[in-house]
Amino acid sequence: MAGRTSPTATDPVKRFSGGLDGQRAIVVGVPQAGSGVPMFSEWPASFGDVPFLRYHLPGRDRRRTEPAATSIENLCDDLETSIAALGARGVESLVLTGHCMGALVADAVAARLQDRMRVATVLSSMRPAEEGLYGAYASSMSDDEIFEIMNAALATSGRPPVHEAFAPLAVRALRDDVLLLSQYSGEGGERDCPRTVVHWSDDAFVPATDLDYWRGFAGTTVVEVDGPPELYLVADNAAIRRIEQLCVAGERG
Predict the structure, then answer these.
(1) Angle of CA points 135, 141, 144, to nearest 5°
(2) pLDDT at 1 over 50
(3) What pLDDT is recorded for position 204?
(4) Helix, strand, coil percentages in the chain from 3-state DSSP, rounded to 5
(5) At a CB cut-off of 8 Å and minimum separation 6, what does 143 contact?
(6) DSSP assigned state of 63
(7) pTM of this structure
(8) Mean of pLDDT over the chain
(9) Is residue 202 within 8 Å of 227, Cβ to Cβ?
(10) d(Cα 87, Cα 93) in Å, to the nearest integer?
(11) What is the CA radius of gyration of the chain?
(12) Is residue 250 predicted with pLDDT exceeding 90?
């Protein structure tokens, strides 16, 4: 097994779960900080005829033998390359969606791809990057406190808690991602790209005042939703419904 090259390294298309099926339009989900593709387990396998692909972060899930991202920019490079490979397979348009870190990455990559394919985004708990995301969140809390918050979030979305045997791995993954976020100066957010920003009324990390920034872009739609941001994980949430609308609009023209 030593020295074996990961299939996802040689074929970027394998960095996604979900069937492409020769479709020209797709939806791609980008995991949040400390998470992976299982966070999308309650999302549909497709949006009508539009397949939903889940992006595997380097160093996690099926890519766990690969080096992890060393910066958010590095992660954006990886996703951009992966989507470009989908474009070489015939994909012409896509909707990118993500929550917190996933939203930042989706927004940045969408801006990079605007001149190559039709891209829209649906972004949950999305802050303007220069405002910072969770800068002191992991550094100021103990592992037990972070683990407790993780399980509280899972309970809110109706999911079982993280098994205690996996607690060190889960906490380390979140700390690693928060460190990358704290070093990220942002890109994409200053461009007026087709995006939807979903704001949750009970979001402790994203103030409603951020919405004034997003409303300053003609191409940005703001969707305000009652409830906690963990609802992004559950079936038939506001982000899913917005993606459904975009897919139907794409089919019409």
Answers:
(1) 140
(2) no
(3) 85
(4) 40, 15, 40
(5) 167, 168, 171
(6) G
(7) 0.92
(8) 89
(9) yes
(10) 9
(11) 17
(12) no
